[in-house]
Amino acid sequence: MGYKGKFKVWRGDASGGDLKDFEVEINEGEVVLDIIHRLQATQAPDMACRWNCKAGKCGSCSAEINGKPRLMCMTRMSTFEQDETVTVTPLRTFPVIKDLVTDVGFNYAKAREVKSFTPPKDLKPGEYRMQQIDVERSQEFRKCIECYLCQNTCHAVRDHEENKDNFSGPRYLMRVAELDMHPLDTADRKNSAQEEHGLGFCNITKCCTEVCPEHIRITDNALIPMKERVVDRKYDPLVWLGNKIRRR
Length: 248
Ligand code: F3S
Known about the structure:
Elements: E1 3-13, E2 16-26, H1 32-42, E3 62-65, E4 68-71, E5 85-89, E6 96-98, E7 101-102, H2 105-113, H3 132-139, H4 149-153, H5 155-158, H6 169-181, H7 189-195, H8 207-211, H9 218-235, H10 237-247
Parallel strand pairs: 1-5
Antiparallel strand pairs: 1-2, 3-4, 3-5, 6-7
Helix pairs in contact: 6-9, 7-9
């Protein structure tokens, strides 16, 4: 059964903005993105919102719904009370372009900083062989749809703009961890995780894991094991001795 629901949507641009009130028709089975589309169609044709698949797979319609980072297309209206006001605001960690659309370029810049897969030089195409167990270790991380909800949520950048230069965020630390687990990758991911991608900024709050719409266990399966490998490398007495000798 349809009903009239109350929405507050942030409207504005880089120079500022405000929450605007709307009363809008809501029908059974709808998600927040349907309501934003209805507002565009009936009351606010210039309301900006980024979306693509409406199936939770493109990672475009990320926003904050009642203060929680969510995909608009995967947030059912039935999860709210009918008399509840639903507030939709843009991702807080990235600069607003217009209304619900933010500039997520920070993430693309961080993606480019991760050194690509580096197989051994003498390995020819067709000679790449992996055990199923190695495939399975990183399979979970490949489910990432790059919605950037984790990047938006992690307090290390959300509350500390100044950290953005030195911290790649959970999504790209997970990528580094994934490559580090790859049996054919030869790049030194452990040093770069710590020195270039700011693994040390992560204090394991697990907020990134909580908001992941693909339920990837970012902290437990990528970041913590990566931290352990970095520490093992740093404090392994043999590695330490080897480094000392090499430095001479
Ligand atoms: Fe941030 Fe996730 Fe670590 S939210 S602090 S990257 S556990």
